Each structure stands twice: as structure tokens, then as C-alpha cells.
Input
Amino acid sequence: MCEDNCGHEIGSTPHTAPTAEEQAAIAEIEKAMPYKPKHFTIAQLTRSQTAINRGIPNIPNETELANLYGLIEHLLDPMAEMWYAKYPNRKLTVNLNLSSISGFRTWEINGLVGGSRTSDHPNGSAGDIDAGGAKWNRKLFAMVRDAEKLQFDQMYGITGRNSGPFASVHMSYRIGANRNQLITV
Output
């Protein structure tokens, strides 16, 4: 289902599509990206059904974009490489089934979805990843926790409104300042 839990499946008829201007802005951002993502894209990490529904742009500024690059290059893509080596048929997705988006969100959108005032999402430093349900999300959490080469700032399982514990795994990455903090929610 979409992040608003309205019943639409991701990939089915959306409420509304991003504007042509927003699509062009995202395309330009991705062309200029110094690191070419293998598994996650800026478009995935900036998509917000709440922003689309309300007509609010969800475009990162230069600093937020640099943080998204760091998140993808140093945490999400290496994590995906490890995951696919271990589970080649288990797809990872940016979880859009929650009341908030999964990657970047502006402070305005963060407030609309009830996000924390200390959230890393508006800084472009966090993503919520779904490995296909609670059982697989727990495996993802354990893999990242136990991987010596993966650095993260914070990580925890997210409880979904309708899906229970470990609906996805929240991961954040801060360039040069990671604590590898595991949080129990």
C-alpha cells in the first residue's frame, strides 16, 4: 500500500504524479551525482506521496543532496551488495508503506507526517528500507549490525501502523560522524 495506507499498491495508479518540473529537477540531480548508485536512486529517496498529494516540492538542497550521496554511497549501496550476495532473490525497497516517506523529506513534510524534530530524514541522512516483511527486515537489521565494514549513525526497526514490528529498518549515515547506535523502539 502507499504511504498513506489508502489501499493503493505501490506502482499502481498513484494519487497524482510528480510535476514535470519536479521530475526534471530530480533527473538533473541524478546526472550531476558524483557517485552513480547501483541499487538506490535519488528519485526513490525523495519520493513522497504526502508531498504529491499536497502539491509540495520535495527537492533537496545542495547540503541535503550531499548527505543523500553519502547515505547511498557509504551505507545503502554497500548494504545492498552484501544483502544480494547473501539473498540474491530478496529485493530491497525503500519502504513507502509508512505514514512518512522513506528517505529525504523537507522539514514541512516532516511536520505534516508527524516526524521528529530531530529526524535525520530532512537532512538527507536517513532511509527506511524494507526487505519484504518483519522476518526479512530482522535479518537485514542483524546483517548490518554485525557487518564490520558498514558504518551507520542510527539503526532501528520501525513499527508500522497496520503491519506491526519491523515493518522496515531505519538507517542513518552522517558523513564523518557515525555512532553505530542501535535503538530499541
Notes: The radius of gyration is 15 Å. The beta strands are 93-94, 126-130, 154-160, 164-172, 181-182. The first helix runs from residue 20 to 32.
